[in-house]
Design goal:
The complex is a heterotrimer of chains A (317), B (308) and C (488). Chain B is of the alpha+beta class and 308 residues long. Chain B has helices spanning 96-106, 123-132, 140-154, 168-174, 179-192, 298-307; strands spanning 2-24, 34-44, 50-53, 59-65, 69-82, 156-157, 176-177, 197-204, 220-227, 231-236, 241-242, 247-253, 262-267, 272-282. In chain B, the strands form 3 sheets. In chain B, strands 1, 2, 3, 4, 5, 13 and 14 form a 7-stranded antiparallel β-sheet that branches. Chain B has a 5-stranded antiparallel β-sheet with strand order 11-10-9-8-12, covered by helices on one side. A two-stranded parallel sheet of chain B has the order 6-7. Chain B is globular, with a radius of gyration of 22 Å. Among the domains of chain C are: 96-183 and 211-349, Rossmann fold (3-Layer(aba) Sandwich); 361-421, Dna Ligase, domain 1. Classes of the chains: A mainly alpha (317), B alpha+beta (308), C alpha+beta (488).
């Protein structure tokens, strides 16, 4: 497979995952924040922005429409939905012949809808439904990808992109919620916020099945970090990531991403054998930051192995 | 005369670059009064070097450096021998103009008669042509000699006033420039009156007694015009010289665009800085060919026979 | 049911059909149906307009769903459009095809000789058959190719030649496309769609197949490399997704099972071309390039090109990679050189041209220029180095203002223009807005040449000027296309 194609598939996938994540966070934000007191709104939006790595606006932090515009239709904001879907679509367009027509059509349709959307119209209609629609479209795209594309090398690069992005985004989200808790400011995080966190990961129902509706910080951390079965947990994503990297190594033939595989293997082992009480007893925010550093290292190792490797190391035949 | 030439080029990049590709036209030509004895090209970082003849008969060396590098050094070393050219007649026959037209119509000289990248007939050039009388009159050789002289008189030699990609109008309007500009201007004037004319890049050996205007530690350029019965004759409008034993020819072309000493491309977000140095020295001792393996004479053969 | 000779014009579904001065592909001047179209006529009479409409809609939908589109330049940021498709096939009889095939083979072989000659010994110039100046002043003449030997001496491996049919039924050559001819994917997809829309009509006719074009192209490309690499890696080099023919590039790469690469996927190292894959650098032996010369190698041609591969020409010169087509072939499809093609055929092959040229006036010649300037309103004027219907004037269909503009351009740059009489292109029946009407058509067959044999799949792209009375068939200028059936 051409390196450029692998690169485009990887980034298409990362941007799609990012779009879904952002839409999900806005959706949860809207439902959970609407019934809050005005004083409670601003810090919560501010936390949401931090979880998406977006600078808060100078004014209007208590105005949902300002915040949602920034995160949805503001093309100047590289993290907005319209920016993310545009980049996802641009990468898909570059490899249009490598993905299925069904995938392309869905991505393109979502892009066109997002381009046409205005925040006034969204608020005039039903904002929560709009973000629900975006999220569902992205689930549809993911389903179509898995159902219509050969599960070969290209699909594996899509998996790598999706799960690396998911680990990155989830650790950032957890960090933002757990930081005050670790600062000893336990009062800043109420049970309502823990529910927001779980819902932000589409994990509230799944959590309840395991731990009942009793929301406890340690249990939440355990569930989102170490659960082996929840597709939203970091451990699950790390498992998928390592599997895909191993598959790519076999499929690409000739080159091995030894470093990327080792790094992914170490991350996986760390989570497979991790003990939540130890992690909580230690410095959880630091632990999360270290996971993100490992993600960066894995990303770079993948590039070194498959995309931008030095010529003198890669001559075949 | 024997000359040793060292031509050193250094590219420095503001950030590491990769996959650089470079073409080099630095190998002296081996024809006419000039014989190429040795040519050697080395690079740092090391690269495997390939070469080919381009469509003008120039020897082009090229290489690529794949690894990341911040500097590229190219060293070209050559040894050439030049013999004195045949003396030119004082002037040509008056019928030479008609013969030129005949040659132009039937020979393969179109490339050196038509406009090319740098050779354009601009209003400023026409002004100069009027001013110095660059028209058909007397005979072609006389006109060329006068033109060579006039350009040297009219234009001041001023390094760094023009760039390698400057159109001739810059020098024409400023009335100053370097050898490349004077050469382009002269080619444009010469082609306009129907004489095939080409660009020569090379080196000039400077003797202190000559007071040449061109810079000693740089490459040089001059023109060659085609004349009936005489063939290609070199004129150096920078120094008002007829090219001879001191002009070492490296590459010929329609204009500079065909013969740059280096041409290259690289991958990376970097700006490059170019430094060039040239040194031409006569090789210390000239060995007379008859000193080694003297010619076999009849007497020596007979002596040999008697010994047996 | 009346037999085929019965005049059908005026009867359903031909009630709107009229014969003009042009040759009509379906009807003889007396209104009787030509034998090759008899079966189609019978079938059309049996179908209701609604059924025809339904099949047209079905065909349109197939194109849309398959994403068969092209990009229009000059339009806001490259809009993609579906290439309009006409439902009624154009028929070519076995005899007609035989003549076309022989004529095109002859022409391609002669043009290939010509290219080899002008980049080597220049005998045709020395012998004064073609003025040297005409070659040297051609924008597509590449001095870098002088003295360079190309594999098997093949310069033009892939060609698309435009033919038109005149009122006397003769096919003539309108232009040669020797650089990066396009349209073959439409020929193939038209056929695929037609098979679904009219499955039974095929059986009744005996239509020669064209589906093997992909294999034939691949075989040609492999043959070019055989002297050099027995198991060559072949890639199709595209300018990228924004190119108007990108669909065709992906289509052909898929048909041949070869990698579709962009310039940035390739690199030159030690005079060898590699492509960057996830498995490492893989050597590339043959490049079917769909990029113009100008953009191929920024070291040699346009330095601002980001579509090409720096160092490609040196690897090519060293014989380490094959390019199809070779560099510099555009000199032979320059519209001024076109006027000399009959002379080129006579010179190299000692034969008379089988397919005639259209009379052509070179504006570079004073006497011919004077004639052209006096008859701007009657002639078709074309820029010599352009294709796709750009920079062109059709005298009789132009305004005085446009004519004056072109006269000015000719005076300013005579070498850049030629003129031809306005030709009456033949007409074929087309199904337009629910009725069958005649429209002007041309024919672009696709020729492959491997140094020994020419292969022409029996068919081609029939392009249709969809506007009534229009003579412009280019897709970029409102043209459409239809399936072309060469009969056994």
């Amino acid at each position: 497979m051409l390196s450029r194609v692998a690169d485009s598939l990887y980034w298409m996938s990362r941007y799609l995952e990012r779009t879904e994540h952002t839409a999900r966070l806005i959706g949860v934000g809207l439902t959970q924040i609407l019934d809050q007191t005005p004083q409670a709104i601003a810090p919560r939006w501010s936390r949401l922005l931090a979880a998406l790595h977006v600078e808060p606006p100078v004014t209007g932090l208590d105005d949902p429409q300002t915040i949602t515009r920034l995160l949805t239709t503001d093309a100047a904001n590289t993290a907005s939905l319209v920016s993310c879907i545009t980049l996802a679509r641009e990468n898909a367009r570059q490899v249009r012949e490598q993905i299925s027509s069904e995938m392309w059509e869905q991505i393109n349709q979502l892009y066109l809808r997002m381009r046409a959307a205005t925040i006034e119209q969204i608020w005039h209609d039903e904002p929560v439904e709009f973000y629900q629609m975006v999220k569902e479209r992205l689930h549809l795209i993911q389903g179509i990808t898995d159902a219509t594309m050969n599960h070969g090398e290209g699909w594996r690069f899509i998996q790598v992109g999706r799960y690396l992005e998911r680990i990155w985004a989830t650790t950032l989200l957890l960090e933002v919620f757990f930081q005050p808790y670790f600062n000893g400011d336990e009062g800043a995080i109420g049970s309502i916020d823990w529910v927001v966190l779980l819902k932000s990961c589409t994990a509230f129902e799944a959590y309840c099945k395991v731990y009942t509706a009793d929301v406890q910080a340690a249990q939440i951390a355990e569930f989102l970090l170490l659960n082996a079965e929840s597709p939203r947990s970091i451990r699950f994503a790390a498992d998928q990531l390592q599997d895909s990297l191993e598959q790519i190594s076999q499929l690409a033939g000739g080159r091995h991403a030894g470093r990327a595989e080792r790094l992914a293997g170490r991350l996986r082992a760390q989570l497979d054998y991790g003990q939540v009480d130890e992690i909580i007893a230690g410095d959880l925010p630091l632990f999360l930051r270290q996971i993100r550093q490992q993600c960066t290292a894995i990303h770079e190792a993948i590039y070194q192995a498959y995309i931008t490797y030095p010529i003198e190391q890669a001559l075949l035949r | 005369m024997y000359y040793s030439i060292l031509h050193k080029t250094r590219f420095r990049y503001s950030a590491p670059v990769t996959e650089s590709q470079t073409e080099v036209r630095m190998c002296p030509r081996d024809e006419g009064i000039q014989r190429l004895i040795e040519f050697h090209l080395t690079t740092a970082p090391y690269a495997r070097i390939n070469h080919y003849h381009d469509w003008l008969g120039n020897e082009v060396y090229h290489f690529d450096v794949a690894t990341a590098h911040r500097q590229l050094l190219i060293i070209a070393e050559s040894i050439v021998q030049l013999t004195p050219p045949l003396p030119l007649p004082d002037q040509l026959d008056g019928a030479a103009w008609a013969m030129l037209d005949e040659i132009a119509a039937h020979g393969d000289f179109w490339d050196f008669l038509m406009p090319s990248h740098f050779i354009q007939t601009t209003p400023a050039l026409l002004d100069l042509a009027r001013e110095i009388g660059a028209e058909r009159r007397s005979d072609p050789l006389t006109v060329l000699r006068e033109m060579n002289h006039s350009i040297a008189q009219t234009f001041a030699y001023a390094p760094q006033t023009t760039r390698v990609d400057s159109p001739i109008d810059e020098a024409l309007l400023a009335r100053k420039g370097v050898c490349q500009d004077f050469t382009h201007i002269m080619i444009a004037l010469v082609r306009r009156i129907g004489i095939p004319c080409r660009y020569v890049s090379g080196y000039l050996f400077h003797r202190t007694e000559d007071h040449d205007r061109s810079e000693e530690d740089a490459t040089h350029a001059w023109v060659e015009a085609y004349l009936p019965e005489v063939g290609w004759v070199g004129f150096d409008p920078t120094n008002n010289l007829i090219a001879g034993e001191r002009h070492i020819r490296v590459a010929i072309g329609r204009d500079y665009a065909d013969v740059p000493p280096t041409r290259g491309i690289y991958r990376g977000q970097a700006t490059s800085q170019l430094e060039v140095g040239v040194k031409v020295v006569p090789t210390a001792v000239h060995i007379d060919e008859t000193e080694v393996l003297p010619q076999i004479t009849t007497a020596s053969v007979q002596a040999e026979l008697q010994q047996q | 049911m009346p037999d085929a000779t019965f005049p059908l014009i005026g009867q359903p579904p031909f009630e709107q059909y009229t014969l003009t001065g042009a040759y009509d592909e379906m009807f003889a001047p007396d209104g009787s149906v030509r034998p090759a179209y008899a079966e189609l006529a019978r079938r059309l009479r049996a179908l209701s307009p609604e059924e025809l409409q339904q099949r047209q809609r079905y065909a349109d939908l197939t194109f849309l769903n398959q994403g068969i589109t092209f990009t229009v330049y000059g339009n806001e940021s490259g809009t993609e459009r579906v290439f309009p498709y006409d439902l009624l096939p154009r028929m070519i009889t076995a005899d007609e095809w035989q003549q076309i095939e022989r004529g095109l083979s002859q022409r391609i072989i002669a043009l290939n000789h010509f290219l080899r000659d002008i980049y080597h010994d220049e005998q045709i110039l020395r012998n004064g058959i073609i003025p040297r100046e005409l070659i040297y002043s051609c924008r597509h003449y590449r001095r870098e190719m002088r003295g360079l030997d190309v594999p098997r001496n093949v310069y033009i491996a892939i060609v698309g030649t435009d033919l038109v049919r005149l009122p006397d039924s003769q096919f003539v050559v309108l232009e040669d496309n020797l650089r990066v001819p396009s349209g073959v994917s439409y020929m193939l997809t038209n056929r695929a769609v037609m098979k679904r829309a009219f499955p039974r009509l095929f059986g009744a006719h005996g239509v020669r197949p064209i589906d093997h074009y992909g294999q034939a192209l691949l075989a040609t490309l492999r043959t070019l490399a055989t002297d050099h690499r027995p198991e060559p890696t072949i890639a199709l080099l595209t300018p990228g997704v924004f190119n108007s023919a990108y669909f065709e590039h992906t289509f052909l790469a898929r048909q041949m099972g070869i990698e579709l690469v962009e310039g940035r996927d390739l690199l030159a190292h030690d005079n060898v071309i590699y492509m960057r894959t996830t498995g490492g650098l893989r050597r590339v032996d043959v490049i079917y390039r769909r990029i113009d010369d100008d953009f191929l190698d920024p070291m040699v041609f346009r330095p601002d090109s980001v579509l090409g591969v720096p160092g490609l020409l040196n690897a090519y010169r060293a014989g380490n990679v094959v390019l199809a087509n070779a560099i510099g072939t555009g000199v032979a499809d320059d519209k001024a050189i076109y006027a000399y093609v009959p002379a080129i055929i006579r010179y190299y092959l000692g034969e008379e041209p089988i397919l005639p040229n259209v009379p052509t006036y070179l504006c570079d010649r004073a006497d011919e220029r004077a004639y052209v300037l006096e008859h701007v309103d009657e002639l078709v004027i074309k820029a010599v180095g352009e294709s796709g219907g750009y920079d062109m004037l059709i005298g009789p269909h132009s305004t005085r203002e446009q004519q004056a503009q072109f006269a000015e351009r000719i005076r300013a740059n005579p070498r850049n223009y030629i003129a031809q009489p306005t030709l009456q292109l033949s007409c074929a029946p087309c199904f337009i807005d629910g009725i069958i009407e005649p429209r002007h058509v041309d024919l672009r067959p696709f020729i492959l040449f491997d140094g020994e044999t020419t292969t022409i799949v029996p068919g081609g792209l029939t392009r249709v000027a969809l506007r009534r009375g229009s003579l412009v068939v280019n897709s970029s200028q409102g043209g459409g296309s239809k399936d072309t059936w060469v009969l056994y």
